[in-house]
Write a structure and sequence with these properties.
12 strands, 5-stranded mixed β-sheet, Nucleotidyltransferase, domain 5, alpha/beta, about 35% helix
Length: about 300
């Protein structure tokens, strides 16, 4: 059995998947609890209790994979770059291993989304997959041959903290980002970025979803904001295609549910990629907001599961 844990800012979700070597894996059990915000010890306890619940309810012992915001730094062995700031500077992987009494696997949540969709999701036939989270933040992950590529510094795929490509005069220097720089892709393509664009034009405060609904209802300012969002997304994804040239790009996160993105992006991409006939598929995550927790469960290759559980 594979157990996946998705450690989010507001919820912690667990899933138990039956073991299969390839293809889809049956869900045995899933459960979620609120995240103890700002309480590191409480987070460790909540995860340990979820693992115990999965095993008690199924009567099986499982490998444990964790999807987390941020990543373990290879230089300090501590968590870095998490927007759940209580986790930063903590030895989260080692603390959980001590708490659970077993080895775990841990990866950034965007990596887990990409892995889930590459294994048995929207990109299951693709060799190289770039997975995207468009939501409160903007994250990315790279999977090659169903294995996460996290890079030397554990930041592979972090396209959200590159500058917006081909920025126009009115987009410079760009909004400030929590990473300390100006004009990061995340500041334009996050939900807050779309909300800000609409507020600047209309003087009204609306969520990203409400802006999309207003555009569908004929609001010209909302439509203008969405068209600009699509163009910025195309520019940003074109830079990924020019460098990585993935077989598929999978969109996840709340803004991936904007259906207007998918018919608009192919033509826009061709005007920015190095080749005018770029045909990279841009698809929505098949498993939706469950992709992160499923990907966490898939962090253990089948060849290692039985070795680990038999110790």
């Amino acid at each position: 059995m594979r157990i996946g844990i998705d450690l989010g800012g507001t919820k912690i979700e667990a899933i138990a998947l039956a073991d299969t070597a390839t293809g889809a894996s049956a869900t045995l059990l899933r459960h979620r609890v609120p995240t103890p915000v700002g309480d590191y010890a409480g987070i460790l306890n909540a995860i340990a209790e979820l693992v115990a619940l999965m095993e008690n309810e199924t009567g099986q012992t499982g490998t444990v994979g964790i999807a987390t915001p941020g990543a373990i730094s290879p230089s300090t062995s501590l968590l870095k770059n998490s927007n759940s700031t209580v986790l930063n500077g903590k030895a989260l992987d080692r603390d959980l291993e001590a708490r659970l009494g077993r080895r775990i696997r841990m990866e950034n949540d965007a990596n887990c989304l990409a892995l889930s969709e590459a294994v048995d999701g929207a990109a299951a036939t693709a060799r190289v997959v770039f997975g995207v989270i468009l939501g409160t933040g903007v994250g990315g992950g790279v999977v090659v041959n169903r294995q996460v590529h996290d890079g030397r510094n554990r930041i592979a795929g972090e396209w959200g903290h590159n500058p917006l490509p081909w920025a126009r005069a009115d987009e410079l220097p760009g909004p400030g980002c929590y990473c300390g720089k100006l004009g990061c892709i995340e500041t334009f393509l996050s939900g807050a970025g779309l909300t800000r664009d609409y507020r600047v034009r209309s003087g009204l405060q609306r969520t990203a979803v409400a802006v999309a609904e207003a555009a569908a209802a004929g609001d010209p300012l909302a439509s203008e904001c969405l068209e600009l969002y699509q163009d910025r997304l195309a520019r940003s994804l074109a830079s990924i295609i020019n460098v990585l040239d993935p077989d598929a790009i999978v969109l996840g996160g709340g803004l991936s549910n904007l259906t207007c993105l998918y018919p608009a992006l192919p033509a826009l991409l061709k005007s920015y990629t190095f080749c005018a006939d770029a045909g990279t598929p841009i698809v929505r995550a098949m498993h939706g907001d469950s992709s992160g927790v499923r990907g966490a469960a898939w962090l253990w290759p089948i060849s290692e599961i039985y070795m680990t559980l038999s110790r």
